[in-house]
Amino acid sequence: MLSGLITLALTFTGFTLIALSMDKHHAQIIGSEINPKLRPAFMFFGWVLLIVSAVPCVQQYKISIGLSAWFGCMSVSGSLLVLMLAYTPKKVFAGAAGAVPFAALIFLIQVFL
């Protein structure tokens, strides 16, 4: 169960980074134009987080069910991001910034339990 929370946090942050690499969403979230030099970095680290987010699910549930759980977590976090972009775009950055320490805390709890 805890691996699902880690995966949700990482996928939400990954999708947020990918959204920050786009002009419209960057202006919605941050309120300014994107620096063209930062665009590839946002895209790269967003994809890295999405790929890394599969690891907790695959470790807990093995490859077949783990990948299905990972896609489910991606659907939930993607839907949450879409709703936040529509209704509260300024809170997306705070949610993504808080999701990474939350994932680290849950990982530490899972390791020591």
List keywords for this structure.
113 residues, 0% strand, 84% helix, mainly alpha, 5 helices, membrane, transmembrane helix, transmembrane, single chain
* Spatial separation of the terminal alpha carbons: 13 Å
Got a strand count? 0
Poorly predicted regions are none
Q: Tell me, briefly, the overall form.
A: elongated
Biggest sheet features: none
Oligomeric state, counting identical vs distinct chains: single chain
Protein architecture, described:
With 113 residues, this protein is mostly helical. It has one domain (2-112). It is built from 5 helices and no strands. It has helices at residues 2-20, 23-29, 39-52, 54-87, 92-112. 30% of the residues are buried. The model has no long low-confidence stretch (mean pLDDT 93). Pfam families: DUF3325. This is DUF3325 domain-containing protein.
Outline of the structure:
This protein is mainly α. It is built from 5 helices and no strands.
Fold blueprint:
Layout: H1 2-20, H2 23-29, H3 39-52, H4 54-87, H5 92-112
